[in-house]
Amino acid sequence: MRRTFAIGLALTLLAxxxxxxxxxxxxxxxxxxxxxxLGLPVHMQDDEEYTAPLATLLEHGRRVFSANWTxxxxxxxxxxxxxxxxxxxxxxxxxxxxxxxxxxxxxANSCMGCHNQPHGMSGGSGDFVANVFVxxxxxxxxxxxxxDLVPTRGALDEQGKPVTLASIGNSRHTPGMFGAGYIxxxxxxxxxxxxxxxxxxxxxxxxxxxxxxxxxxxxxxxADGLWDVSAVTGLPRLxxxxxxxxxPPSLVIxxxxxxxxxxxxxxxxxxxxxxHHGIQSTERFGANTDPDGDRFSNxxxxxxxxxxxxFQATLPVPGQVIPNDPVIARAIVRGQRNFDSMGxxxxxxxxxxxxxxxxxxxxPGPFNPAGNLRSGDARTxxxxxxxxxxxxxxxxxxxxxxxxxxxxAYTDMKLHDITDPDEPMPLESLDMxxxxxxxxxxxxxRRFLTRRLWGIANSGPYFHHGMYSTMREAVLGHSGEAxxxxxxxxxxxxxxxxxxxxxxxxxxxxxxxxxxxVVDEQYRPRTLPVEAxxxxxxxxxxxxPARSAQPSAQARAASATR
Length: 562
Description:
The chain is built from ten helices and 17 strands.
């Protein structure tokens, strides 16, 4: 008892001494004091990501993603908001009873706390209870107290208007990250394709923007050299900003956040750790600094962020479960046909082509915004996404010599307006793609990235808000640009409606250790019935069996190049 008291007293005195003298505690260094409680006892030091075996890098990334962060390693952000800015009222720090706030954050102890479904898998989606209030983090500590007259302290917005639970932020369902590496590489390749079209345009010319067969409207370069993006569709505002002939729109595909706000897993990771946990990365907030006033520096190293990003990029790919019951199997085949005939596949494109070079995930990526490493800022870590030593199941080309592989994610990577003012589920209160001072920010958001449907069946609840408990409700919730598809579903016979739902029910995240992409209800290899349509996507055929449960020589080390 005396020893425990002495240890606690020593730690208290150490923290008090650091606060009094301004000495920072380097959270990235190993500390072996007895009684110390740390969510991540050992950080990966910068440059170790280039020499660590791939298995070690992935395991460390999993630990970063799953760590329950504590106040003794920098968890929490006493003097800053979740958007990285200083508190509106520094006299009321986020300490003690104000350390956590479900709406404005910090709102979670670990990434896995919200990303854990199905099968308890780290990196998955979340229940409705795990919803995040996007843009709520611009408040110090959300209270809704009517007597609080300080903007963004707890009850008033930037214009001094009272906020409500519905208007303080957008309640968003936690998405699953399975197959994330393939998604990001698709986005990068599509961005390159769009930018190539842009860069080859002459003054006075208008061209269609097409990437991997997906149309993004038209871009015009006026005779005076200015860029006209008024006819560009499906891209967020941040990808369309242009002011002069010398600063063309980036046209970057942003596959993360349901409103297309985040470019990459790295960007998403740097932002989320500060917002949700009060953990600041050195690349976003600076090395040997204490921006949030908790007396800890270097709370997340560059190598930590790389490991966490690659862990997410190499998560297994969702698959398809086709029960052996012939009635259900036939319904799935029928439902897949209905998915196309009802127009669902127009946006939820069954599969997109990824070139052979895109099968290698690289970190950091080329399009990251400021505050994140970009290609060239540091050495590149490469991982073969198709390596069977990675968590199964994985994608594979139809033939080993193929130069293109289909990624069956069921998305077009575009933003679509799927709401209607007269529908029960109206627009979101805030548009996160505009700055808070812009009139369009409080005007709300109607556009959302086309939901990736691989893994949809056991990744509920559904829609961007997570307020639909069934996929049928989600289908009926489509409006706006998707109204015709919803009406086609409503006009169909009950059997055709049921078949479509059975098809969607077959698209599942498979249990850990499952090797094949298409399995039966016992997760044994399965093929589509004979009457199935000709395969046009990877899910229509079983994946190659894994060669070995042990990492191959190629997989044992992450490739590092300058």
